[in-house]
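Annotated sample (chain length 192).
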Amino acid sequence: MSSTAPTYSNPFVWPDTADICDINIHERVPVVLDVTDSTYFAWKTYFSLLFRKNNLVDHVDCTVDSRIMVGDSEWTAIDAMLIRWFFTTISKDLFHTVVSDGDDARAVWVKLNGLFTDNKLQRCVFLQQNFFDCHQDDQSIDDYCRRPKTLADELRDIGAKVDDDLLLSRLTSGLNEDFGNAASNLSLMSAG
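Output written by the structure step:
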């Protein structure tokens, strides 16, 4: 085993363990990842931004072999903190699915992402069913509009495109009766 130091994209910035430990993960990642909800795209995006902002990408992108870093207490402390962040931002079911003794942050990250991208056909069927079953019911208009958009983003992540016309069609057909005129007008606008 080699004991070379990791190469960071910015060699002058080394994450400070105390700064990383002080991050309130629930403020930075305000969603809980769950297989029964469409939160994967948001969850992954929040974490990706957090990794980039704090120079933590090397913990999840395989540029550094964690077995080499075992002797670096700061690196292993940060890696353990990332694992803790993952575990506190996922559902209990997901936790029990991915938890395994001895995993590093990269292994947990790969497992979690794989659950949402590896089973593309199953995931696509689930997301499309939710997309086409979307109705406003008693939700606010903002909450309702966010739901199909989120599902469309999740579908895009697995390679199933939802074009703007289909998204608009789904949005208008799921609106409450109170928005009947608006739905008709939106449908006419998109046809022209």
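Annotation: The chain has ten helices and no strands.
Annotation: Confidence is low (pLDDT under 50) at residues 1-12.
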